[in-house]
Amino acid sequence: MKNSSVQGKEWVTKKYDKNLLELISSKYDLDFFTAKLLSIRGFKENEVESFLKPKIKNYLPNPFQFKDCDEGVKIIYKHINNNSKICIFGDYDVDGATSTGMMSLYLKKLDVNYSVFIPDRQKDGYGPSIDTFKNIIRENVKLIITLDCGTTSFEAIKLAKEKNVDVVVIDHHKSQENLPIADAVINPNRLDENDDYYYLCAVGVLFVFLAGLNKFLRDKKYFEIKNINEPDLFEFLDLVMLGTICDVVPLISLNRAFVYQGLKIAARRNNLGLKTLTDYSKINKKLSTYEIGYVLGPKINAGGRIGKSNLGHKLLTTDDAETAYLISSELNNLNLKRKDLESNIINEAINLVDKQKLEDIIFLVKNDWHEGLIGIVASRLKEHYNRPAFILSQNGSICKGSARSIFGFDIGLAITKCKQMNILIKGGGHPMAGGFSIEYDKLNEFKTELIKIYNKSKRDNNNLLYIDSYLESSAINNELIKKINTLEPYGSGNKEPVFAFENFKVYKVIETNNNHVKVVIHKGSFYLNAICFNSKNKDIGNYLLNYKKNFNVAGKIKLNEWNGKTNIELIIEDIQLIN
Predict the structure, then answer these.
(1) Which one of 1.10.150.120, 1.20.120.1730, 3.40.50.300, 3.90.1640.30 gives the CATH number of domain 67-329?
(2) pLDDT digit string, tens, across residues 339-373
(3) What pTM did the predictor assign?
(4) Rounded CA gap, 342 and 385, in Å?
């Protein structure tokens, strides 16, 4: 009889090639455990070195292989030479803040006449609109560069061109079959691009584009003529790293190199805003993907969600210590407020779902949910119910929505298809997330079409929990942590290894604050701190609090540093009751 998982998951031990393991271990002088983790991930012998120590130069493409890159570079050069007024138009999330931040810092080094516009989420909505472009054009702007948006902004860009304003779009969101009539659309997810760099977020695309712009200006002897230094793009890698982690794009190939090298740049603490927010958050250790994705990222996002949309950009570009401190404080307070509002909406949403028959997708509409928080709510419901979630906030006859997906169902493609069918007013996204607006009367048509697309998709089995290895409790030590850290940075596309341990028991409950359950588990005389996030009032949390018998436990092993003390901790993913 199989042991039963509390979360209804089947535990599957990952397979690996023993011959490949031995080859990797021998060639790179790696221990058996590290070589096993690499072979489990399917790396070939000649791929190991570039994975463990990724270099940007080994992955950076020729920028001009991207469609319209050549044209975009020439247009920006023309306006820099003419000293035209340039407007940088960005998104309000972390990818948008880092993109607009990097573009601003780049143009500042060239002493260019530029301004920045980031739309207010509730007043202006996502991306360029006719109204926002009208206001920008009134300021005598001659070039608009859209970052992390613009690929589906047909009407706004058409208006700009009618007013003789040039537009360069630098984006990563899925395109429709047609593109707006911008002067250049640089986007690896255009339908007429190959998909080699589908995984880049906007700040990653911008880095590649600026490498092309640097080369073009160098060839034109621009820096020499102007007697200025060529901008060193590697100085901006902390921003590229920040946007790449927070946009949850796959940490593979060039993205992995961005994050690996970007964390090194961040360790130098040269970006005053990032340094100040890190200190304000009381992070007194080397930054990792965890601190970026779960501590700093949500604070920078909080400005765009429920506060002022430009706070993230301002923080990342300021050179004034007092300004950096005040913005850090404001973002911290906004994030605390965001957590309270979010918790209320999530509880309300779960109650609504539980009153209905559970369908293939979660689809909820309510007229008082904060537009800036529905994305997070969608993400939480997706995790809770293990299915795609579409959460909408209604305002009169118009609803604005946010969606999060599971692997195998491309939500950005689904939204784009519905937009092309004229079901949506506007919308777009990428495989795991999207946003849209829709007339209330078309909600049923939208939901029906989504279910059709979902049923045709090739989805992963989300009821499987993949185990990298079963370990004895004696293996849990600092040496194990070192070996696990060899494969950092972890993230989407390079998941942290999950280990299983047999016959543990709860020794005592430490705390159940903030929806998390923290316990000490033990096997004989071996004791281990463990935490299960967002498990309070869920089956797994209840079992940890009340179950008195032995169980098997699966999770990630971490080194927890707090108040100058370090201890090994298990992040619990699931437990199996022993039959």
Answers:
(1) 3.90.1640.30
(2) 999 989 999 999 999 988 888 899 999 998 998 89
(3) 0.89
(4) 17
